[in-house]
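@channel anyone free to eyeball this complex?
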Amino acid sequence: MLGVGDFYYELGVQIIEVCLALKHRNGGLITLEELHQQVLKGRGKFAQDVSQDDLIRAIKKLKALGTGFGIIPVGGTYLIQSVPAELNMDHTVVLQLAEKNGYVTVSEIKTSLKWETERARQVLEHLLKEGLAWLDLQAPGEAHYWLPALFTDLYSQEITAEEAREALP
Amino acid sequence: MAMSFEWPWQYRFPPFFTLQPNVDTRQKQLAAWCSLVLSFCRLHKQSSMTVMEAQESPLFNNVKLQRKLPVESIQIVLEELRKKGNLEWLDKSKSSFLIMWRRPEEWGKLIYQWVSRSGQNNSVFTLYELTNGEDTEDEGIESILQDFQGHL
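replying in thread with the prediction:
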């Protein structure tokens, strides 16, 4: 299992800190890539190097401890869920769809997944409610639902002092 | 003292310009807008604005992103700032406003500290001296006091 001083234990603590600090922005959903960047930043140059595989292993251990962490495969990488939002298969599959452009629309869902409008709408409403998606009414055509977690502009943006404070117990 | 100003990540995030339906998300959004308005005005040493100016200003209108905050939402942001004590309407019809990126109490404290530092406690001096004296720090004291003067 895990012991204090264990590499994965310490990594797990770091992962939790990063997720807590960024939860305010992304609602508790973060790509493995961004998590990796932020963890490496926090480790400094003398720390042992950490790979994405290491992160996945650490997160699996966190999951096993019942911390509410989730790992969602999307487009060749993973979304890490750190807040126990209720996400079922429908939500997950829409997240996977959103990964391509960072946003998703009702039309896209209907076309790609062959769903009825109502089913698509319900999933998007849920994502809004969980704070995982933001609504954009000025997009061309129809409403776009953007996920801060997938907003690549956000990658390697410094964690602000405010956000760091949020991470403290 | 030069202020470095960087647009926050939200400014490049298209939904930032749509008032969010989810209450928690909206709270975060409004807090970010308030913060942005204050740092923008501070950078540009702008202490008053009309609502019309605001609508077309890069502050609320991100041309590159093709998104602008609609006027009803701008009003909501301004009302938040008013509630926090950072904004005062200059007319009844709410067409122009004073932005106090430092609230009056904060300015009072700053001025008091400056006066104490320059050893001028208990002396009377004019607004001209205050705003044009050699010791005046580049804190935008001049523009704020000028605006207050006009406001009186």
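from a first look: The mean pLDDT of chain A is 87.
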